[in-house]
Amino acid sequence: MQLRLFRHFVPVSVVLLASSDALLITGAFYQLLSAPEIGAPIVLRVSSFTVQFSAGLAAAAVTAMVSVGLYGHQSFVDFRLLLSKIAVASILVLMLVSLSATYWREGLGYLPDARSFPLKATLIWLVCVSVTRGTFSVTLGRGLLKRRVLVLGNGAQAARIAKLVETGENEHFVPISFIEAPGERSSLRSDIVDRSVSDPAVLADDALTEMVYRLGASEIVVATDDRRGLPVRQLLHCKLAGIKVIDFLDFWERETRTVDIEALKPSWLFYSDGFRCGPLDELLKRAFDITVSLGLLLLTLPLLVATACLIKLESPGPIFYRQARVGLHGQVFTILKFRSMRVDAETDGRPRWASERDPRVTRIGAIIRKLRVDELAQIFNVLRGDMSFIGPRPERPFFVAELAHAIPYYSERHWVRPGITGWAQVNYPYGASTEDAWIKLTYDLYYVKNRSIFLDFVILLQTARVIFWNYGAR
After folding, report:
1. Is residue 266 a part of any domain in this protein?
2. For residues 194 and 177, is the Cβ–Cβ distance under 8 A?
3. What is the span of the domain harbouring residue 461?
4. What is the DSSP string of 28-81?
5. How many CB atoms lie within 10 A of CB 199?
6. Separation in Å, CA 384 to CA 286, 380, 389
7. What's this model's pTM, rounded to 2 decimal places?
């Protein structure tokens, strides 16, 4: 199941898990902080500082857990990956608690073992995480939080829904039945298609409504390739009976947090909720960009200076690499990156996609690419207004012309400023082909449609996960 928070779809399981983590960690930290007063009545032990400090630490711990990907689906199916993420998160939590305890040492002065407080708090955090993860693993394994959907259609769109389940890419819904649509060419196995409702003899009856009640479905997904054979009367009866009826494109956007380009129609773009960005949104976005960029610039300044020196020492040529990219409304601007390739990387003047183990990359360039340090120079593009911190990655004019011709709706990604990181970057590896650009566009269009400060913050945290696990770097 999914919730829509500030235009962005968030799994109910993630919301519940994060809330459970926050509450349990807050309570555990509070008990640790109030231990010296354990003999006093609970009402007398409650202090505003202790509660606020415990809640603040819990919020910081949950934020650290998001940044390393502890709320992702993979963390529940790969035990070794889960352990590695918990190990990294525990280091972050220990650092956060240590810094907080140092800053608020006067408030924590009553603790007899204040020096050991960070370690104890981290161990308590580890126990809390183990409890919540164990509980939710059992819950999710039984499918208690999955939405039961009835799919109307047996063509290509219905087959894509079935494939989501078969490949294990879905963890939020279960299709309990696929209903044959009259006149549609089937793309599904015959054994999973229900033909009882498509019989013309029962089209006037409430067979579809009765099936929903009998199977305990929570909604109907209309996933027919051709709408001319829809059982309109039956769908209307379902809607009037309070049963949710959802279009395939809306369903796909909610479950995958992408926009399906193959099934996309202009009418859906016109009438669907989204693409809202007023003056206040633009002001908040710009404030977010400047705040994050300046903070990151100050934080990484020693690293930037060291990178510049190493590039200059290794190979002759400029420190920064300047390249034309396509930005807002198709305007071309010059992007800055730390140079990671030889100066003669494109002596023939022909643009090329970057590849794995690219021979044009220098030794220092390979390191800064893996660590994403080469991208940090784009902070100056953000401060100058050419880019946003969060947004679709800007491409070179040569590739834009090529991709716009090959991929429908490709140019629509230029309705927002390009970004250093974005929804596509945190969900899909480095794109180096037209096929990759097609897939990344499904994420970019989702971002253009649902962009908000909340989604920007989510992407910012997930960018840390990508850097931690070296996801898709070249």
Report:
1. no
2. yes
3. 279-468
4. HHHHHHTGGGTTS-HHHH--HHHHHHHHHHHHHHHHHHHHTTTTSTHHHH-HHH
5. 12
6. 11, 6, 11
7. 0.88
Contact 75, 85 (CB under 8 A): yes
Same domain membership, residue 371 and residue 352: yes
Answer yes or no: are the C-beta atoms of 229 and 182 closer than 8 Å: yes
Structural domain count, the chain: 3
The model's pLDDT over 140-179, given as tens digits with 9 standing for 90+, comes to: 656 667 889 999 988 899 999 998 888 876 778 888 888 8
Q: What are phi and psi of 179, to 5 degrees?
A: -100, 130
pLDDT digits (tens, 9 = 90+) for 390-446: 999 999 999 999 999 999 999 999 999 999 999 999 998 766 788 899 999 999 999
Are the C-beta atoms of 70 and 17 separated by less than 8 Å? no
Exposed e or buried b per residue across 230-243, where buried means at least 16 C-beta atoms within 10 angstroms of its C-beta: ebeebbebbeeeeb
Domain end (from 113, 141, 169): 141
Domain with residue 206: its CATH number is: 3.40.50.720
Q: Which residues pair with 193 in a beta bridge?
A: 178
Domain boundary pick from 141, 164, 186: 141
Distance of alpha carbon 158 from alpha carbon 155, whole angstroms: 5
Strand-pairing partners, residue 335, are 323
| Length of the chain measured in residues | 474
Nearest-angstrom CA–CA distance, 162 and 167: 9
